Amino acid sequence: MTNYALIGAAGYIAPRHLKAMKETGGTLHAAYDINDSVGIMDSHFPDAAFFTEFEQFDAHVHDLRTHGTGIDYVGICSPNYLHKSHMGFALRAGADAICEKPLVLDPSDIDHLAALEKETGKRIHSILQLRLHHSIIALKEKIAAGPKDKIYDVDLGYFTSRGSWYHASWKGFDQKSGGIATNIGVHFYDMLSFVFGPMKENIVHHRGTDAAAGYLEFAQARVRWVLSINRDHLPAHTPADQSTHRSITVEGEEIEFSGGFTDLHTASYQNVLDGGGYGLDVVRPSIELVSHIRTAAIEPNRGEQHPDIK
Ligand code: NAD
Ligand code: HP7
Question: Is 303 inside a domain boundary?
């Protein structure tokens, strides 16, 4: 039986972690959030202890360890800028961390965390669930089976509408979330390097609070990308009842990957339990990539623009 603790239990993504812990046969012993709206825990782990103050959570996790119920993994679903501190807590408490993306905002934090892994002997795992999506795995296998010198033309449009709440929440503040390319885009930049190899060129065409766009080159791909959370930017062909449109075309051929997301957190946890998982070295390139997007010059005339940019 795997013993878990959870940080950020009241948030949007926490239920997927609770479900993953349950479905992989684990037990949640303790959870923490500054917000007490955590009734969802009853559906999964009605006996788990819950705290709204870090000090009490910390003391409880320590007591559990003293009494022989050491926590194996701490699931981390807190805002992005807090991940580093919360991963530090997990490792110092003798547990591995299973932390939401983006693992950290600043690439230099990865070095600090690597030192902490060495000091504690514990590991950090990032949730990067697109790497476990069946369509993406099939695409990776197809590219790997093709000619190694072929460069593919890829268009990536990621439209996922959010209301004004997004901008008022921590997600709307660059210093807390990293901005939309970091908070949402990190999935697809990581996925692109997973499929097409290391990044070679990173040009930013637009960087706003509700949309970003650019041009990327990987070892085997030229990518025109656009990302938007503004409903008005949805492509005209999006069905009226749909608020998201995720599309990737490779050499003009559409790869369908809008569906099949709901169970990927369970697959992510299982992957860690099976000895896989995505550690610091795996996440470093995508963290460096989004860090560059945050500070790069805006160069709309370099590289090709995505056709759905409005
Ligand atoms: P959210 O705002 O809904 O939830 C964050 C939770 O953290 C809230 O309940 C908040 O009260 C809590 N919190 C804030 N400060 C805290 C603190 N100091 N200590 C403890 N808890 C604190 O956000 P969310 O959408 O659930 O995002 C959480 C994390 O999950 C982020 O890192 C986000 O990037 C990631 N995320 C990943 C996916 C995915 O597809 N993998 C989807 C959504 C969110
Ligand atoms: N939604 C909420 O109610 N609350 C939220 O906090 C977020 C969404 P999708 P996911 O916005 O921060 C993506 O677009 O795929 C609503 C990113 N993940 O499918 O779950 C939303 O309004 C994630 O990294 O959202 O999450 C829709 O109605 C990023 O942190 C519905 O939920 C997150 O957006 C579904 O929305 C974010 C991926 O893109 C894989």
Answer: no
| Pairing label, strands 49-51, 3-7 | unpaired
Residue with tokens 């022989």: 68
My answer on whether 195 and 284 are in the same domain is: yes
What residue owns the CA closest to ligand 1's atom 11? 35
Task: Give the atom of ligand 2 at the shortest distance from the alpha carbon of 186.
Answer: 24
ipTM: 0.99
Q: What is the pLDDT of residues 209-245, one digit of tens each?
A: 999 999 999 999 999 999 999 999 998 888 888 888 8
- Say how far apart CA 192 and CA 174 lie, in whole Å: 23
For residue 40, tell me if it sits in a domain. yes
Is residue 3 within 8 A of residue 94, CB to CB? The reply is no
- Centre of ligand 1 to C-alpha 197, Å, is 30
> Residue 100: CB within 6 Å of ligand 1?
yes
* Ligand 1 atom closest to the CA of 37, numbered from 1: 9
Range of the domain at 84: 3-126
| Position 305 in a domain | no
Three-state SS at 159: strand
Are 122 and 137 within one domain?
Answer: no
CB neighbourhood size of 69 (10 A): 15
